[in-house]
Give the backbone structure.
Amino acid sequence: MNRKFRKFIWAGWLTAGLATAMIWSMPAISLGQGTVETGETGDVAQAGDLVVTRPLTREELGPFPDDPAMALDYLIYKRYFEPKKHENKVVYLTIDDGPSHKTAEYLDILESRGVKATFFLLGKQVARYPEATRAIRDRGHKLANHTYTHVYKTVYQSVDVFMEEVERTRAAILETAGVDVRLVRAPGGVYGHFEKSYYRRLEAAGYVNHDWNLDSKDSVMKKATADKIMSHIRAANKDRQVAVVLLHDSGKTSSLEALPQIIDYYLGEGYTFEVLPENETVAVHNILPLREIKAEVEAALRARDAAGQ
Ligand SMILES: [Zn+2]
C-alpha cells in the first residue's frame, strides 16, 4: 500500500462540487493523490484534491485500529465478500437511468401491484424531471445514485471525475427531493470500469455500490418487446433465491410494458419485493480489483494473527 494512501488527515467531507465542508474531529483517511496537510483541529484538504473522506468510528476500525487505510479495505472486504443469508426468496427491482417522461407510468404500475423498487437516477435527468424525482420519493420507493451524465468516456476518465459525478448527483437529488442517497450503481456496471481506488473512495465517502445479478437485457436486446424481455428473465432467473433485476426507465416503451409481467412473474413465484439496503451489498460483480483487496486484507489478517501468537 503506498505512502500517500496511508496519510491521515483531520478533515471531513470535501465534496468536489460543493464549496462547503464539514469539519470533523476524528482521524480520517486521505485517498487523494495531491498534498494533504495534517492538522490538529480541522484542516480541510485543498481544493483540487477532490478528497472525500469520512472519519472511521472505533467500531469500523475493527481489527486494524492503528491502520485506517487497512481498516477501510477490511470494510470493503466485509461488505462484498461476507455472504448474506436470505431465508425467503427476494427480488429487488432496480430501475436505472431515469427519471424520464415515463416515470409516472412506472410508478402507477408498481403501485397497482403494491411493490417497491429502487431507482438509480442520473443527476442530469433529476435536473430535467424534478417532479418525477419527487414522485418516486412520495410513492415510497428508494432513490439511488447512477452518476450525473452516464457517459462512460467522462465518468471513467479517473476516479476523481467519477466521484465528482457521484457527488453532483447526490447534491441534485438532495436539492430536488430532500433525500441524501447512499446507494450507487456504476454506469454499465463495475466490470472494465472500476479499479481498487473506486471502491476505496466510495467506501470512504460512505457510499454502497450495488451491481445486479439479472440483466433484463431491455437496453441491449435488439427489437426488445415486453414478451422478449419477460422470456429472457424467466429463463435467466431459474430458481435463484435472490434476484437483483436490472431494468431501465430511459423512455423505452418495451421496458415499461414488460414491468407488469415481471412483477406478476415474481409474485407468482413467491418472491418478496424489497428495496436495496444501505448497510450491505446484495449483488456483487466479483472483479479482479475487488479480489485484490480481498487478498490484501486476508494477508493482513494472517500477519496480525501470526504476530499475536
Ligand atoms: Zn445505466
